[in-house]
Design goal:
77 residues, alpha/beta, three-stranded parallel beta sheet, 2 helices, 3 strands
């Protein structure tokens, strides 16, 4: 693949990536439902996931685990 080609899936359609950033614990069942009904190939989480407590971050992580799509998280904290 050259630098000008678009990455594609096995069925030769472009890869769709959703980028979700700094949710600060504002993530829940409606978000999971939305992304589960979407056609994204990957949901990429960047920045702060939870609030300022371990419990808030754990709650978000457990909710993200309910996604049907592949998910990748990079957290700054």
């Amino acid at each position: 693949m050259s630098a000008h080609e678009t990455p594609a899936t096995r069925d030769n359609r472009p890869i769709r990536i959703a980028v979700v950033g700094d949710i600060h614990a504002y993530w829940g069942p409606p978000d999971v439902e939305y992304f589960n009904q979407s056609d994204y190939d990957l949901v990429l989480f960047v920045g702060d996931l939870g609030g300022y407590t371990v419990g808030g971050t754990l709650k978000v992580a457990r909710s993200i685990a309910r996604l049907d799509q592949r998910a990748l998280a990079e957290s700054s904290r």
